Amino acid sequence: xxxxxxxxxxxxxxxxxxxxxxxxxxxxxxxxxxxxxxxxxxxxxxxxxxxxxxxxxxxxxxxxxxxxxxxxxxxxxxxxxxxxxxxxxxxxxxxxx
Length: 97
Hints:
By secondary structure, this protein is low in regular secondary structure. Helices cover about 15% and strands about 5% of the residues.
């Protein structure tokens, strides 16, 4: 069972709240604004993050197994789990601010 709905996730991110270690398995976050989100250690297994804005987000230690990140945007400040292959995931580099 998910800890939060899509709407709750977006509201928490907009308010600057942390979603560290949240269970978001299978959630639909297509094109969601998640810039600078703290998703460290979150369970994003099988989540749909296509086209999401992950610029500056902290995804260290997050479970991204089976997550769809095609077209999700990231930059120099986005942090990923060790060994995560952004190119293989089909993510879009937007560079440094």
